[in-house]
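Subject: for your reference before the review

Hello V.,

The reviewers asked for a structural picture of the protein, and I figured it would be easier to keep everything in one thread rather than splitting it across files. Below is the amino acid sequence we used in the manuscript, unchanged from the supplementary table.
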Amino acid sequence: MTRDDYARYVEAFNNRDYDAVFDFYVDDPRIAFFGVEITTREQLKDFYGFLHRFVKESVTVERYANSDELAAVEGIVRVEGIADLTREELDRKGLTGLFPIAKGEVQEMRQYIHYHLRGGKIESVGCALVA
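And here is what came back from the structure prediction:
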């Protein structure tokens, strides 16, 4: 995955084009972060369709490095509440690793994101928050 490929991936994500996002993945990916695990196109669309009803989310890439097997990103994930997302709502969806956010609140999180690659496509994703 080249830097240009990744720029197209982030653009699709920031534009909420979930089918275009998933096209960057192998057929059987493992996307895991903060207690969320996604392995299918429908799970990705369901998760982000739910989340993005409550928040406007965008990714700004600050650093990018890649090889044939790995793409590593350091960046800022910005989440702005567009509707109240409560602890109860998150718990009902089983999203206990995510944080509530109120309408109008903004959270900016520095993240390290690792994408393991297979054949130029994303096979798995893991990320960590950086203080």
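For the response letter, the relevant points are probably these. Residues 3-130 form a domain with the Nuclear Transport Factor 2; Chain: A, fold (CATH 3.10.450.50). The two ends are 28 Å apart (CA to CA).

Happy to draft the paragraph if you're swamped.

O.
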